[in-house]
Amino acid sequence: MRHFLDFEKPIAELESKIEELRQMQEPDGINIAEEVARLTEKADRQLRATYAKLTPAQKTLVARHPQRPKAGDYIGQLITDYMPLAGDRAFAEDAAVIGGLGRFRDRPVVVLGTEKGNDTESRVAHNFGMARPEGYRKAQRLIALAGRFGLPVLTFVDTSGAFPGIDAEARGQAEAIARSIEACLDAPVPVIATIIGEGGSGGAIALAAGDAVLMLEHAIYSVISPEGCAAILWKDAAQAPAAAEALRLTAEDLRRLRLIDAVVPEPLGGAHRDAEATIAAVGEAVEAALAPLAPLDAATLKARRRAKFLDMGRDALL
What we know:
Elements: H1 9-23, H2 32-52, H3 56-63, H4 71-78, E1 79-84, E2 97-104, E3 107-114, H5 120-125, H6 133-149, E4 153-159, H7 166-170, H8 173-186, E5 191-200, H9 201-205, E6 212-216, E7 220-222, H10 226-233, H11 240-247, H12 251-256, E8 262-264, H13 275-290, H14 298-311
Parallel strand pairs: 3-4, 4-5, 5-6, 5-7, 6-8
Antiparallel strand pairs: 1-2, 2-3
């Protein structure tokens, strides 16, 4: 069953009525097909109008939609001959960060992603996509492996942030995140990062400091969640919509500020309405971003990456 967000209630009512009509046997004198077609057209208009004017707070809800495709879905559809690799070779395996070797359109690659899970059991198993230090150290290990064998790195980011627990802090969470950012910035191979849902704080940028940073149309990317920002600045979670507006966390804002490189359009109504088409569109965007980078040598890649990140914030429109 499709999960509807609060602001989608009028659409939900129309689609529920359409489904009821489709289940009915056609009574004498009533053309159900015509009524279904009329309501379907009305629902499409309502959906188009709603998604044409989403607020940052509403985009945050779409980015967190429980049926939105996750990192594992992207890897499953885009990566062939996938061989998962586990563990940081120091402490443990962290299921919040998944990754391994595979082929992207016949090109050998290393792939990484933050995985939230699709149901209660998998969300608990993946710690809701919130990685501990061993997850980021696994990412460092795989990025180093990519550099050793000259393989491009593809990352798919979807996390509310790094795990904030005491055990994570005791094992050096901040240092692990910083080292992962360093590994991305210092990689001698192309790094293509895609924000597929929620890009939260250092937990996201640890896997997103790439040569090209792509972002889905209704994804978000921010230093802090709207709720966290509201709690700090206003001491009131009800101010989260105002915080979402102030944070400039939407793909449109971040592209305008030149903090990301491209926005990948989503199907009407969001990625959760057509996961297969969304993943295919991301595949095309990744290939377009990777093509000009693949022939470059390590020194050129590092120099371009350094210049790109040092230039962020200069002459940006606020």
